[in-house]
Design brief:
This protein has about 150 residues and is α+β, with helices and mostly antiparallel strands. It has three helices and seven strands, in the order H-E-E-E-E-E-E-E-H-H. Helix 1 (about 20-45) runs antiparallel to helix 2 (about 115-125).
């Protein structure tokens, strides 16, 4: 019993579900991590194509097999007419507005891209964009209900 006595034992209950705000933050953070890895790969001159498993049914035998396929990651950044790089956050099919009428972050060069994406990720994690994420999530939800 000597080993267990050195630990702090408590009675705890695991929460059954995360709040919807936290689920939305997590979803956006995962997508932002994909964008960060894509930007790093492009800076190194490589490609970024994460793999995922997909169930495929063989048309002849009818057997289902798991196949590893590449997941397409569309960049959320682009070069504007001014020659500067712009970054937009997307939630589903919607672009998130940072403030009224401003939906992108302008960067002078692509070398700053990774640091800006990491800054946006930390802003999402701390909850600074919760109101904007909620607006975008409701717009996506309304689109599928119609």
């Amino acid at each position: 019993m000597g080993v267990l006595s050195s630990l702090k034992l408590v009675s705890a209950k695991r929460p059954s579900a995360l709040p919807s705000v936290q689920l939305r933050r997590n979803k956006l953070c995962v997508k932002l991590m994909d964008q960060i890895l894509l930007a790093k790969a492009l800076a190194e001159g490589k490609t970024y194509a994460p793999k995922r498993l997909r169930n495929v049914r063989d048309s002849d035998t009818g057997a289902i097999a798991q196949v590893e396929v590449s997941k397409r990651v569309r960049p959320w950044f682009f070069t504007a007419d001014s020659g500067k790089v712009c970054v937009q956050l997307r939630y589903g099919s919607r672009t998130i507005d940072f403030s009224k009428g401003k939906n992108s972050v302008e960067i002078s060069s692509s070398t700053e891209l990774v640091s800006v994406l990491e800054t946006l990720k930390s802003a999402v994690e701390t909850g600074e964009l919760d109101a904007q994420i909620d607006v975008a999530a409701e717009a996506v939800k309304a689109r599928f209900k119609a």
